[in-house]
Design goal:
Elements: H1 3-7, E1 27-29, E2 34-36, E3 41-43, E4 51-53, H2 62-78, H3 81-97, H4 107-121, H5 129-143, H6 151-159, H7 169-172, H8 183-196, H9 207-219, H10 223-228, E5 234-238, E6 245-252, E7 265-270, H11 272-286, H12 328-348, H13 360-373, H14 378-384, H15 399-406, H16 408-414, H17 416-422, H18 428-434, E8 448-449, E9 453-455, E10 475-477, H19 481-499, H20 511-526
Antiparallel strand pairs: 1-2, 3-4, 5-6, 6-7, 8-9, 9-10
Helix pairs in contact: 3-5, 5-6, 9-11, 9-12, 9-13, 13-15, 19-20
Amino acid sequence: MTQATRARLKSNAIIPPIDRPLFDKAFIMSRSRRIDTSGYIWQIGESDAVVLNWSALSRLPDELVSQIKYAFEYFLAKLAPDSVTGFFEVLKRFSYSVDEWEDEFTLADQLSEYVFDFIVSDRSNNDESNLSVLRRWYLRSYHLGLSLFQRKTCQVLSRLSFKGHQKGQDVMVYMEGRSPLRSDELARLRKALTDCRKHITPYHPLFAKLVATWLFVVLGVRPRQLLLLMTCDFSVNIDEETGNKTYLLNVPSVKKRYKLPRQQFKTRLLPMFLGELLEQLISVQYGDLFSNELLPKSDDQLMFVRVRDSGRGKRQATFERFEGSPGFSFFYHAPIEVMAFLDELRVARGQPVLEFKLTPRRLRKTFATHAAAMGAPSYALMELLDHEDLQHIMVYYQLGVNFALRVDAVYQKHFSDHLAFFEGKITLKELVQRSDVHTVFGPDSLKKLVGIGLCAKGAPCTLQPPYSCYGCNKFEASNDVSVHQEVLTAMQNEIREKFGDDAPPGFYTVPHINACSELVLRLEVDHE
């Protein structure tokens, strides 16, 4: 929202109500086209099918639904369909929270009371973005002069502070299946996708999804960006002297709120293998676009097309050229289906499955995390990720991510044997033969950690002992303070060895070091 728009949303502004009849318009104008509003179903999609079903708000009074439609008329003229759908989903939840509307009280007073009741019952410790959406709807409706929305309610709502969505929490804190792939996992994934190419030809039904998965891995794009791709966005440059090819892809932006689809692009250079995959995909679907004219105006066709007709009606997209798109779900499920194919292939070969839980969002965060760790400038990463400002990408530059990625190599170098034991790749006897007998930790069974304590976990640990032990609720520490002091010193020396004496102080206050330090202090006090 622009600064001028924010200025008009002052809660203390006095807006006289405007008398309006019940909403009965046959159509309204969105930011891109005319929308039929004569029935319960509003098709508001632009490049994809997006529907508002007003029967979901049937529990609300007709007068209130009418004024909500007037507010949505404004939203549709300004915002993208996904943003408008966000308002609608919150209002659906709000309507379900209301038991009944009484005749003894005015509708405006009841609406204010129920809005505050919904806010109180829906407060959260982590994410209250839905409450922010509800507040914005109420404030905007009041500023449009709708009679059921009160100035005093706007003043109270403006004073409330809501917690935003914790974006990047899965980057700062490891969450299985959600956090970015580690460097070793990403290397295994790329190798598996490369091997997959030997079994999936351009005529295989999974080929388009393999190409989409590679685009998620290499470019970190969103599914909707792939939905908008046209063949004219792909270019092949051939060096006349050497005959070498260079592949470029103009990736459309989808985060510019006040611009229509395909009005802004970011040119991305593609690796040779990915350019060849896209070339083959286009060639199979339309013929060779770059050497002959088999298809008139073929450069303005969809990059990905729906192979089979599901029998459903038209997708109600704004532009006819998007009617043949396979839809958002095709791209969202592409990595999942490719991984399922890979795991079946590995099982047939007698190899262990990868068991990667892949989604476009996780691959996007993996791309951003590794780009930041490799030194990509923040402004460059902001453009690559198609963001409008820096606030959403700074999480990738936080200490936790940089530290985790940089010491990843240290873990593999110094603790590879212990990790191999916990993963079941070597036996305990082999571990003892390889390990230094003076080490401060090293399991002599699945549950005992030599020197530092015991572990209540009944299965091999998949974390990184001894670092993970001190922050784990299954760890029972020994009372030998000298052993833990030795571990603490080793952790600090490792940071000093990796980053030098001028390492930032924050490197010494990561969770596992803090936990170990607190244990040492507690034991020292107990033994005084």
